[in-house]
Amino acid sequence: MITIRIITLLFIFVYFTKIVYCLESLDRHENHGNHGQHHHHHTISEGHDKIFDLTLDNIGKVKLYWKIDYPNKELQFEIHYYKNFAKWFAFGFSSYGELAPADYCVLWTYWNDTVVLEDTYADFHGILHRDIQQDCADFKLVATNKIVKFSFKRKFSTCDLSDFKIEDGTVHLVWVSGTNKLYNIEGVNVLKTSGAQHGMVRTTLLKNTDVDYDVEPGSWNLDFVVDNVHVPADDTTYWCKIFKLPEKIHNRKYHISRFESLITKGNEGLVHHMEVFRCIAPSTQVISDYEGSCFSDKRPKDTQVCKKVLAAWAMGALPFVYPKEAGLPIGGPNYNLYVMIEVHYDNPKLKADWIDSSGFRLTISPNLRKYDAGIMELGLEYIDKMAIPPQQEKFYLSGHCIIECTEVGLPKDGVIVVGSQLHSHLTGVQVFTKHIRNGVELPELNRDNYFSTHFQEIRRLKKPVRILPGDALITTCGYNTMSRTNITLGGFAITDEMCVNYIHYYPVTELEVCKSSISDKALQQYFTYMRDYESQPTSMQLGISDNYNSIEWTKIRAILLDSYYNESPISMQCNMSNGDRFPGNWDNMEQVHIDVPLILQNDCRQNAYIDYDKLF
Prior knowledge:
10% of the residues lie in helices and 40% in strands. By secondary structure, the chain is mainly beta.
């Protein structure tokens, strides 16, 4: 018996020394955060790589650092937390922030005080299973009396079906910690473990590392910050405030060269995302002063004109910087001097003592740059013709920017797209824009397979994209309406839906809106079919919204609507900056067709894109 016990202990020791480096001494470097606001020591070796950081919990006790190795297609993560915070800690990824199913790397202590990091996955019931293929690599640990720091490496794609594929776009980071000792990680339930804490944060892990963040000498700033807001003890708050620009903005045009967040120290886990909106009104019109809930009945009606996006930021986002040859114009005699900031607070613990003065900084270039940058809207019109039936796990709508519109709206040499902000509302879960030239699909303009309306940032593209006259663009959104009992209509309300890609480009051109909707004639044909063949109370005398709402939705009726959307002619919004359409009849236009689809590079012998929701 003694011999067997010794052999068993030797086997355990050899097994764990293969995957563990315990209490290893590592070089320490001081990190000043993205904007020089935080001071932490991390153990990731800096070299020439940029180190990004993010607060994982709402109160700043858990901190994540990471750096990106694009040549080797891997990330190095490092997590810090207070030692008394947890006896085991699981960090990982899930599709939309759910704790299960999810892919986890779990730090825990074996019975003989050996600390290990193991690759696991949680099934739909929340039960952890040790992964056969261990992909939480190069584990290192530093522990003091107060702080635990551990790091590991992870490939973007491990070619393991039980692992999450890390890609461009939104990533939902999840974590669970427990204060109880474990004898085995297998079988632990992340949904039901007593005393466990957990959290979720959205970010983009695969950031653009080639942006020059140096500020041009002589630049000056416009800061828009809220004033000591006592954040309500609600899970979610949208807070709006009106600002007036300085009078000198009326004197001439200036260029915005960059914009970034100004987050109140200690509130990094509270401020979820923010936007600055320009008020579209005559230059002399005064917009009512207001600060309060964006959805309050007390918000003045004239503030509703403040809806043209100037800047956007989401938790974990870096400053957005325009290339040195271009800037976003602001000011001039015809420019209205009012803007509005919208701040989204995320307060899941319903704390009542948050006070915040966060906001935005716009950097103004001292000199006008060679090109004016512009913002163009791609996607679907903001109207009720495009709708999503209820109880749909994933229903797709596409908005077209057709060849005819880019032919009349773009200059001969085209425009260069440098940034993109994808946008939908509460049911949107996926957004992407395809680029087509002469029927051939080119690399996509932007894609977010795990989109969330609660994480919207303007992303600087890793490679600028030139769009030529005669090119076409298709922006597609996927929606999940499983929680809804009736149709979701297109529109402006947060409970309505949108599908938009706001692209930042230069040089600015007359074309400002290139969006579509199903043609009126085709939609009426659908309603007529519902009346004649499905006995639904639709009618030519009813409006579009009433017709949609009158239908009792079934899977067959939803499939039929989807086919109408994909095969019918479209009505185009091919609009100039003054709001007028380019001359011509833009109704009953043909949809964009792709003759030669893009073939995605596949590093694994599996699908290039895996629906993670269906893995388990």
